[in-house]
Amino acid sequence: MPEKKLNQKAFAIHRIYIKDISFEAPNTPEIFEKKCIPTMKFNVNTNIKQLKLDIFEIILQVRVVVRSEKDLIFLCDVHQAGKNMCSTEILELWNIILYEAKVAAKKEPILSVLYEENILKHDKLSSALSYILSTKLSTVAISEKNMQNIFNNIYLNDFLMLNLVVKDLKAILQRDPVANNYLTPFLYFKGFHALESYRISNYLWNKKKYALSTYLQSRISTVFSVDIHPAACIGSGIMLDHATGIVIGEGVIIEDDVSILHSVTLGSTGKNNSKNRHPIIRSKVSIGAGAKILGNIEIGYEAKIGAGSVVLKNVPPCVTVAGIPAKVVNKTNNTAVFFKEDQNNFLDCINKFQYGD
């Protein structure tokens, strides 16, 4: 199997230092004369503070408390901090979007307010994206301002999410022949908006904020006509093209650099109610419009699923399948890379898919 390219780092450590340290033992020396069975509590927290546009201070807070049955034996607090430099990749892409917005505003003055409100008045990528998504997803229940604050705080607390945003935008520019700049998908493509909104709901789900996460899922489905369960696991460099009618179930796993067209369903067969009832989509898979991939199956690396196909079995890597039920109709040039040492294994995979076990 070809080696995956390593993702670029989202930040680089610039400085590490002790910000604060304290030790308290108020009941010494008497406490050491008593017989007791000590108990210890150990807490770890992090706090992120933005110092400049591209510089953040991340503080690791560690507290250790040791007690006897009634008395405090000792308490220790240590705050270690690090100054981190923001990814230049994110800043470079944001500067490109700013430039494209300025040029577009001059070419089409009637849209200048749109460009100003959504792009030009913001000082960073996360702020602009939070604004765009909150204007689309806000309701009377959660105002635009509150929604925007939620999104901004999440981007601040999980900086790696911005790296995913960058990779998703670059995927659109590389794979969608209609896209010839970053501004257009950033402002208008609902597949991109649905995907980044899902990433917010997935963050909330992983933080056990299930109610808010499910609320966002509902809004994403209503506004963008894309239904992605917040527990689904989706990698980077994803393109949801056109996006209308895409359904992605709870247990779905999608690796990096996958392309999915409209009306695709990644779900279960309805015969299995366990958590392992959904498909796994390996990296660089392309799924055509209207395809249905159902059940606890795996779609191999760089496979292509034809439009309207129904897939109910594991698909080998580097093949094209199509039809109802789907059959192998072509093999890509990379097939030999996967099965160079074991052609029999590849033929066995093909035969099982075509004709069953």
TrEMBL record:
Q: Where is the Serine acetyltransferase N-terminal domain?
A: 93-197
Q: Where are the transmembrane segments?
A: none
Q: Which Gene3D superfamilies match?
A: Hexapeptide repeat proteins (2.160.10.10), SecB-like (3.10.420.10), serine acetyltransferase, domain 1 (1.10.3130.10)
Q: Which GO terms describe its biological process?
A: cysteine biosynthetic process from serine; protein tetramerization; protein transport
Q: Which PROSITE patterns match?
A: HEXAPEP_TRANSFERASES
Alphabetic keyword roster:
Acyltransferase, Amino-acid biosynthesis, Transferase
Q: What is its EC number?
A: 2.3.1.30
Q: Does the keyword Nucleus apply?
A: no
Known CDD domains for this protein?
LbH_SAT
Quote the InterPro entries the UniProt record gives: Hexapep_transf_CS (IPR018357), LbH_SAT (IPR045304), SecB (IPR003708), SecB-like_sf (IPR035958), Ser_AcTrfase_N (IPR010493), Ser_AcTrfase_N_sf (IPR042122), Ser_O-AcTrfase (IPR005881), Serine_acetyltransferase (IPR053376)
Pathway given in the UniProt record: Amino-acid biosynthesis; L-cysteine biosynthesis; L-cysteine from L-serine: step 1/2
**GO molecular function ontology, one term from the record:** unfolded protein binding
Pfam family of this protein, just one? SATase_N
GO (cellular component) term, any one:
cytoplasm
- UniProt xrefs under NCBIfam families: cysE, EPS_EpsC
Protein family membership: Belongs to the transferase hexapeptide repeat family.
Q: What is this protein called?
A: serine O-acetyltransferase
